[in-house]
Specification:
9 strands, three-stranded parallel sheet, 205 residues, 19% strand, single chain, alpha/beta, six-stranded mixed sheet
Length: 205
């Protein structure tokens, strides 16, 4: 959290899997995690989407914890944010797609082609479902960048269903850039190899 705050972010996106494992017993509890998340501050807001492991634990518990800290939990939401200088930004989210596939009618609609639109999704598997021009940038996580990679960062496995098209870090489809972050944690094995955790700082013009 100290590293995040050293970047002095205007806005923070939390991309899911705050819980670990497949049971409550294998994860840090939201009330314990609260002591870490309360360190985060950003003048334009902090936004949290749901990951698949958060479903195992109970998303409502994580959502309530975030809400109590002033962090906005998002679930198939679209917001119009007013930025300094009179600028506007549409920020949207989709729920986790790992266990129950997203239906086309759940995908966000763009408010206006004149308003930049960022879409947050824990899993990258929604990418092919998006119509061209839906968003200017889609940011996802879930894959851990492969977690265990060959030297040079080539993943030995990819837990995205869209394995060929979308992998860490950047992809593009129908003119829309997609960013997949490695994130900070691990899945199944408490091990990373040639795939260090990361915090991504984006400067958006």
């Amino acid at each position: 959290m100290e590293t995040i705050m050293e970047a002095r972010p205007d806005m923070i996106f939390l991309l899911g899997d705050y819980a670990n494992g497949h049971t409550r017993e294998s994860s840090m509890a939201p009330e314990t995690a609260r002591e870490y998340f309360k360190m985060l501050k950003a003048p334009l807001g902090i936004f949290a989407v749901q990951g698949n492991h958060d479903q195992y634990y109970g998303w409502n518990l994580w959502r309530n914890m975030f809400s109590g800290l002033g962090i906005l939990p998002m679930w198939n939401d679209s917001l119009l944010l007013y930025l300094p200088g009179g600028r506007e930004l549409q920020l949207s989210s989709v729920r986790d797609d790992y266990h129950l596939r997203i239906r086309p009618e759940e995908l966000p609609l763009r408010f206006s082609p004149d308003i930049p639109h960022i879409l947050l999704s824990h899993v990258p598997d929604i990418f092919p479902l998006l119509a061209p021009g839906t968003a200017d940038l889609v940011i996802s996580a879930h894959t851990h960048g492969g977690q265990i990679c060959l030297p040079g960062g080539r993943a030995l496995a990819n837990i995205s269903r869209e394995k060929v098209k979308f992998s860490y870090p950047w992809s593009q489809l129908n003119g829309t850039p997609f960013l997949i972050t490695r994130g900070l944690g691990c899945s199944v094995l408490p091990l990373r190899f040639c795939c260090p955790p990361e915090i991504i700082v984006l400067e958006i013009q």
